[in-house]
């Protein structure tokens, strides 16, 4: 779950229809955050929501990936109605604040499967992308490569099949993240098609 771009885009003039809510789901280590950041870099109509988590920051992280807070702070935010969705996963809390995106921007959420279920209940028109690893072996390599300890890797790998099963049930599209550029281009192409459909026949493409 990545951070918003350093300079917020002005999307109002770019979109002539109701903005899309785009959701990335997939097992930990599949590269959702990296893919999300690449999309925002290449698509000025996308705004990436920055999620909260109560987990500790990894040594490999810069600190911009999440809004890192302790558990009491997170729980206080829940009580104040701060989140669009939130869930507990492997003992840590994750949540998406209510979007505060620039006018007209499509909103990109990188969240857990439970969070996607909550968002879809509120907005059934949200578009869900299930991001897959090329293989479970590659997934394990990525988890270990980002510095996760053995217990966390094992927990993530054990939960991955159930995440993928439920993710396929929720997903509008399934994309294999075997190559960052290829996967991002595939998603951008899908988003452009969805935007053309929403703008309708009166749009000037």
Description of the structure:
With 205 residues, this protein is an alpha/beta fold. The chain has a single domain, classed as Rossmann fold, CATH 3.40.50. It has 6 helices and 9 strands, in the order βαβββαβββαβααβα. Strands 2-7-1-8-9 form a 5-stranded parallel β-sheet, with helices on both faces. Helix 1 crosses helix 6 and helix 4 crosses helix 5. The longest helix has 21 residues. It is globular and about 50 Å long.
Give the strand tally: 9
Average the pLDDT over all residues and give the rounded result.
86
**Helix-strand category:** alpha/beta
Number of helices: 6
Tally of separate domains: 1
How are the strands ordered across the major sheet?
Answer: 2-7-1-8-9
Radius of gyration: 17 Å
- CATH homologous superfamily designation: P-loop containing nucleotide triphosphate hydrolases
Strand content: 15-25%
CATH architecture classification name: 3-Layer(aba) Sandwich
Low-confidence stretches: 1-8, 12-16
Give the proportion of residues in helices.
25-40%
**Shape designation:** globular
In CATH's first tier, which class applies?
Alpha Beta
SSE string, helices as H and strands as E: EHEEEHEEEHEHHEH
List the helices and strands and how they pair.
Blueprint: E1 21-25, H1 32-42, E2 46-48, E3 52-53, E4 67-68, H2 71-79, E5 83-89, E6 92-97, E7 106-110, H3 113-122, E8 127-132, H4 136-145, H5 150-170, E9 173-176, H6 180-199
Helix pairs in contact: 1-6, 4-5
